Amino acid sequence: MSNYVIRPFETVDHYQECVALQEETWGSGFSERVAPAILKVGSILGGVSAGAYDASDRLVGFVFGLTGVRDGEVVHWSDMLAVRPEVRDSGLGRRLKSYQRDEVMALGIEKMYWTFDPLQSRNAHLNITRLGAVIREYRVDMYGQTDSPLHRGIGTDRFVPVWELSTERVSGRLKDDPSFAFDPATVQGEATKIALEAIFAPGKPYPRPGQVDATLESDWIRIEIPSDVDALMEGDLQLAQAWRAATREALTHYMGLGYEVHEFIRGLHSSGYLLARSSGARF
Q: Per the confidence metrics, is the pTM higher than 0.85?
């Protein structure tokens, strides 16, 4: 990881390289890509437009976000983050987020928001386990239908994490402080009720969603997802759509009752969100 340098985009070529990486990530001609002019203007107005470069000065990842006002408070919205496939799960995404946090905290900003697909376990692990974000918002089909192959057939439901930048939870997890690491053993047994379970059948490559239990009352609610939704969409799109419907039903129900997503347990074939009681929820 020490071979990567993160720095702001400064030239037209830098911005064009970022657009090219967006298209590599989300599909050629992706209509939601951020144009060079917006990347530049965003950074002028307190946003972040920065890339991670390897030893040969090749762009291998980037982060882009805008600064604005939400509910009367100046906040930062992280709009895009991507790293090349060969460096995923290397910690580079976390480094880009940490860089972004430092930049906006220097402006006095205390909260950052972004979105991610609740069915994407890699993103959930980064955002919740590694960064310490908490989720209080679920947006149904937030971006409508897009032309990205990553969204094919399952819509664009999104979580909206809130990253409270100066909290001990966030700083502790960024430092890998063991006292802030989540221990699944603390919520095992009767403390956790399963609202949606991944069901495995002999000879089937992917789990199917069980029935959503909307009657539970517990300090912790577990909602499971398949660990590799991309492979699932390739192998059985109808089953991926069933997972979208089931997770949407379970998550909107319990978050609507005042639960928020606090932890994520990543597994080989299925993973799980852990929702804790909170004082309120927003949709």
A: yes
Task: Report how far Cα 91 is from the mean position of its chain's Cα atoms.
Answer: 14
Cβ density class 247-283: b for 16+ within 10 Å, e for less = bbbbbbbbbeeebbbbbbbeeeebbbbbbbeeeebee
Q: Is residue 152's pLDDT more than 70?
A: no
Residues 174-177: contacts with CB within 8 Å, 24+ apart?
174/94, 174/98, 174/101, 174/131, 174/132
User: Strands 192-196 and 198-199, how do they pair?
Assistant: unpaired
| Residue 236 backbone dihedrals phi, psi, to 5 degrees | -160, 85
CA gap 119, 251 in Å, rounded: 11
Q: Taking each helix axis from N to C terminus, what angle separates 36-44 and 12-26, rounded to the nearest 10 degrees?
A: 120
CA–CA gap between residue 35 and residue 127 (Å, rounded): 25
The 3 state secondary structure assigned to 48-63 is EEEEEECCCCCEEEEE
Per-residue model confidence (pLDDT) at position 175: 94
pLDDT at 185: 82
* 175 vs 162: CA distance, rounded Å: 19
Go through the domains of the chain in sequence order and give each one's CATH number. Answer: 5-178 (3.40.630.30), 182-277 (no CATH)
HSE, CB side, 13 Å, CA atoms: give it for residue 280. Answer: 2
**Whole-angstrom Cα distance, residue 273 to residue 251?**
9
pLDDT tens per residue across span 82-107: 999 898 888 899 999 999 999 999 99
Q: Of all residues in the chain, what percent are helix, strand and coil, respectively (each to 5)?
A: 35, 30, 35
Residue with tokens 């094919």: 152
